[in-house]
Request: fold
Amino acid sequence: VQLQASGGGLVQAGGSLRLSCTTSGFTFDDDYYIGWFRQAPGKEREGASCIRSNEGSAYYADSVKGRFTISSDNAKNTVYLQMNNLKPEDAAVYYCAADYGAVPMYQVMGDTINPRELRYWGQGTLVTVSS
Reply:
């Protein structure tokens, strides 16, 4: 399994970005959670949002609920994170991760996570939000 995150950049507060996580090594008909995690300087990595690949069930941290939307394109094996109304506190390196559906990734949305707790990680993409 491989994951590749992209789409980060510099945006003003109130602006939008869309992150992409392109996956390989499994299909979205398989039972996986694919999630977005973020890590700001000096802080621990935390869960932002995840989706269950074969159901489309989506989960969000309270801090992003109503502003971020996770979605998937099964034909492209890609998960997106649409981020609207970005705030300076959203600035971080964003990582996508995946694990089997039996691992309840949704439980760590809004919580910190040790990367060793999940099986597959992509490289990060930097989101900078200017105030």
